[in-house]
Design goal:
This protein is 32% helix and 26% strand. The chain is built from 8 helices and 10 strands. The chain has a 6-stranded mixed sheet, with helices on both faces. It has a 4-stranded antiparallel sheet with strand order 2-1-4-5.
Length: 245
């Protein structure tokens, strides 16, 4: 692994005749904030699900935290945190009950649960709101709570699948402050997004289109490469149509 948290080699995923991911190669270092940028249907979520051990690759290999996702998916899931587009929370539970539930799901030791609960509440800014029903929280608060629940077991790698979709810009920026804190603590953060401005927050990004990785580098490198290209402006003459009548 050579210190890499994620290693992807010639990864492909097909569903029948449809190719969702095509020959992707990638290495993500420990503590790196890595972003997948691309439109809906680009293959971002499919790749994330493969890396989380939720889907088996059709071809190629993916190693996460030193484990092969196709051979040891359970080991992979023990070493990652995952936050989906829909926050992964239960609306009919309170804030505290969601934290308790995910502590059990992730196998947090009982002796550590009070401290981890306090950490999640503090990180989410929900101290004093333990009995609040989750369905009454705003999108921004749900987002922070979902992240807190995803890292209760202190995973070395966190996968965030379009976590800021549908959240206002202020809440999105606050959420990225939390991501930076995780990175500074040595956790690898793998995030998918279709927001161009969020790509600026990542250490490196990969551009996906129709399942293929078409560009890879730091935000500055990709912007420089874009500026070297040419732009053409096309003028189309207006055409007056005769009255068909």
């Amino acid at each position: 692994m050579n210190g890499d948290s994620v290693v992807i080699e010639h990864l492909s995923k097909r569903f029948g005749d449809f190719v969702a991911v095509s020959d992707v190669n990638l290495r993500v270092a420990k503590g790196e904030i890595f972003g997948f940028l691309g439109p809906n249907g680009a293959g971002k979520s499919t790749t994330i699900r493969i890396l989380c051990g939720l889907l088996a690759p059709t071809e190629g290999r993916a190693m996460v935290a030193g484990f092969d996702v196709a051979v040891e998916p359970e080991k992979v899931r023990e070493n990652i945190g995952y936050m989906s587009q829909r926050f992964s929370l239960y609306d009919d539970l309170t804030v505290e009950e969601n934290i308790d539930f995910f502590s059990g799901i992730y196998g947090v030791e009982k002796a550590k649960r009070p401290a981890r609960k306090e950490y999640a509440l503090e990180m989410a800014g929900l101290q004093g709101q333990e009995k609040t029903m989750t369905r009454t929280l705003s999108g921004g608060w749900k987002q922070r709570l979902a992240l807190g629940c995803a890292i209760l077991h202190e995973p070395p790698i966190v996968f965030l699948d379009e976590p800021t979709s549908g959240v206002d810009p202020i809440a999105r920026r606050a959420f990225w402050d939390l991501i930076y804190q995780l990175s500074e603590a040595g956790q690898t953060v793998f995030v998918t997004t279709h927001y161009m401005d969020e790509a600026e927050y990542c250490h490196r990004i990969a551009l996906l289109y129709h399942g293929k990785m078409i560009a890879l580098g730091t935000p500055a490198e990709l912007k420089t490469a874009m500026n070297k290209g040419s732009m053409e402006e096309v003028f189309v003459a207006s055409i007056e149509l005769e009255d068909a009548a």
